[in-house]
Amino acid sequence: MEFNDVGELTEDPRKKFEGFLLQEPLDERIVNSRIFHGGCYALNEEQHFSLKEQIADQFSLSAHQDIFLVGSAKLGYSIAPRKRYRPFGDTSDIDIAIVSHTGWW
Length: 105
Description:
Order of helices and strands: EEHHHEHE
Number of helices: 4
Largest sheet: 2 strands, antiparallel
Radius of gyration: 15 Å
């Protein structure tokens, strides 16, 4: 457990994620619930949507169906094997996944 900016006790996101992995047997549910959906660590809600909207506009896609912020910017820490649980920081990038059945090419 740790304290957030306003002094409230919060659960360590890494431990929460590890607990979820132990409890959830379906890989698809893990990816959908933690990687593709939910809040974003690195950006507030408005910034998150604005970034997705700009990318969607560039490629004529849907911001809420085709554009996903992933990686440490999404979770607050990396889940890549060689960087596992490295926290998002000043030198981190923002990874975007485009998943669409309609092509922009």
